[in-house]
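Quick one, probably user error.
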């Protein structure tokens, strides 16, 4: 065979019968080119949301184990239907659940982490000239006793993990968009599709709200050397390749502007100014599997005073975060204030490492638009600002224009960069 390809199809790509048939045809086309093919499928359309709705109809606080049993059914339906469509196209296919495919996770429910992929059954099916369809978003706990799910967007991680286990040539992620853009085209119609982006930049973009790829899938791909090709389900043109930084042909000052309106902020009042206070707070959140993004601590200004700590979490985790912190009230903080609707805008670019003044320009642009910044977080290649959610669209448009991303953008060619460094 020519090689091994893992193809992942998202929910919109298998939303109805015609789209499942189209996905089946794309899978068969790859097989007929001589490739061994494994396809990882998401649940159809809004199936996962509908299943969550069913659970909430019967329980105000659904048991996490039973939620995993329920939610894992959506991807299994997609795989079985696609296998039937492939059979009708004259090829042999076999659908596997996550556990049958050998995806082993930790014991967490609803947000499990993949520990291993024991892909013997997949390899055996490929050697038997089958196309293999794997139910995404799910696995089996390391004890082998419980079905687990990986959280929103977990099918991306399933696909990358399977690709890593098989040593696949590429992991193709098929979505309803042509690739990764310099901004959300729904907000910035002039946004450009990126031909290539580095793992590091894509990690920061995914963490900052870019919904094309799931954060954990990019992290897994970087750690295991899996090349990702993010492309459209509805066309044959190339999309965006996510590759190691050394494989990018050019180093942009700013690669993209990303945003999120799914953030919530928690502020803890009256935190003791003593060693270990913050550790107790964030240990409790980690134990509840709550992902914390930005953190700001205001130091007390008087002797014996108490501090305030503010941090952001995904809005869907707010209830869990409050429940995890409640036992610490009185000892580790005096009061908790929540802000359920926060916006975030970020700029990402590898070129920021060696070019001062980027942060100043971001703040100047937002100030010119009258956008107030409530929290700031930075990394060597990212600047994020928490702002009013109603101003996110304006902020994204202004930053995208200010950094000239609607054209070729500000590119730092290797030669000119060297020349700049050589100047006295």
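Nope, works fine. Designed sequence:
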């Amino acid at each position: 065979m020519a090689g091994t390809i893992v193809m992942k199809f998202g929910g919109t790509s298998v939303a109805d019968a015609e789209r499942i048939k189209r996905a089946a045809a794309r899978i068969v086309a790859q097989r007929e080119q001589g490739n061994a093919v494994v396809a990882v499928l998401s649940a159809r359309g809004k199936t996962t949301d509908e299943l969550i709705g069913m659970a909430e109809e019967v329980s105000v606080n659904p048991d996490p184990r039973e939620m995993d049993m329920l939610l894992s059914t959506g991807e299994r339906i997609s795989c079985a239907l696609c296998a039937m469509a492939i059979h009708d196209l004259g090829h042999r296919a076999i659908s596997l659940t996550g556990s049958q495919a050998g995806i082993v996770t930790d014991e967490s429910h609803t947000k499990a982490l993949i520990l291993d992929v024991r892909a013997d059954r997949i390899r055996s099916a490929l050697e038997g000239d089958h196309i293999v369809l794997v139910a995404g978003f799910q696995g089996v706990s390391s004890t082998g006793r419980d079905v687990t799910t990986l959280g929103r967007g977990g099918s991306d991680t399933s696909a990358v993990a399977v690709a890593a286990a098989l040593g696949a040539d590429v992991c193709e992620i098929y979505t309803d968009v042509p690739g990764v853009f310099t901004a959300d085209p729904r907000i910035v119609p002039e946004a450009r599709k990126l031909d290539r982006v580095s793992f590091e930049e894509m990690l920061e973009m995914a963490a900052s709200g870019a919904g094309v790829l799931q954060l954990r899938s990019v992290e897994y791909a970087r750690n295991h050397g899996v090349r990702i090709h993010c492309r459209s389900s509805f066309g044959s043109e190339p999309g965006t390749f996510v590759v190691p930084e050394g494989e990018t042909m050019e180093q942009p000052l700013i690669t993209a502007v990303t945003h999120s309106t799914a953030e919530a902020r928690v502020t803890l009042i009256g935190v003791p100014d003593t060693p270990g206070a913050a550790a107790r707070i964030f240990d409790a959140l980690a134990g509840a599997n709550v992902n914390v993004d930005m953190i700001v601590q205001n130091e007390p200004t008087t002797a014996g005073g108490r501090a305030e700590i503010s941090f952001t979490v995904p809005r869907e985790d707010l209830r869990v975060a409050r429940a995890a912190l409640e036992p610490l009230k009185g000892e580790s903080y005096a009061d908790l204030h929540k802000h359920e609707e926060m916006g975030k805008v970020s700029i990402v670019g590898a070129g920021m490492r060696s070019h001062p003044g980027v942060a100043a320009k971001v703040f100047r642009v937002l100030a010119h638009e009258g956008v107030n910044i409530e929290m700031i977080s930075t990394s060597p290649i990212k600047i994020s600002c928490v702002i009013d959610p109603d101003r996110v669209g304006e902020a994204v448009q202004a930053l995208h224009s200010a950094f000239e991303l609607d054209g070729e953008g500000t590119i730092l060619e290797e030669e000119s960069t060297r020349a700049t460094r050589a100047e006295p």
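The chain has 13 helices and 20 strands.
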